[in-house]
Amino acid sequence: MNAREAVLRRVREALAGTERTPRADIPRDYATSRDVADPVALFCERVADYRAEIERIGPEDLPGRITTALGGAERVLTPSGLPQAWYPPAGSFELLSDGDELSAAELDRVDAVVTTAVVGIASTGTIVLDHGPGQGRRAVTLVPDVHVCVLRESQIVDDVPAALHRLDPARPLTFISGPSATSDIELKRVEGVHGPRTLRVLVLP
């Protein structure tokens, strides 16, 4: 008898005579309920903790605030399905459409992207994209250096289980918690390696 067989034999002996509790009998309310007094305020706090910029604004301020959030971007991508009222006013930048199916090289020359999201998670400060209308394909939110995301308060939920109830597992899902960041062996933080260096979130009523 080798070591593996000896370990398995002892496991079988330890489990002998025990009864397995059916999975359905285990109470799991803890996984679906969380008492959060103000999910939107908590979401804003957690997003800021991740070094992303976040601001609660009124609908009338949105185009101007998007323009401000874009900073000095010269080429800005807007995915198809983004509400027309959300488009930043024409100015010193060039607006590109995701419907143009830009190549990787062309995307690399895009400075910023404006999207919406499908849900925001208060407890983790995470925004989730399922790449439906107004969100674009995954590449357009990973390659440009600046990502401006617009979210409504009604899309913000308490925690991850509540968010999963709103998501379609058959769709491609991207979970974003702050700007892309990594650390080297000396723990020096570097941003923008695997995605946008800057994430700015605008929250509408």
TrEMBL record:
InterPro entries: FTHF_cligase-like_sf, LUD_dom, NagB/RpiA_transferase-like
Record domain LUD: where: 106-204
UniProt xrefs under SUPFAM superfamilies: NagB/RpiA/CoA transferase-like
One Pfam short name: LUD_dom
Protein name stated in the entry: Lactate utilization protein C
Organism: Saccharopolyspora cebuensis
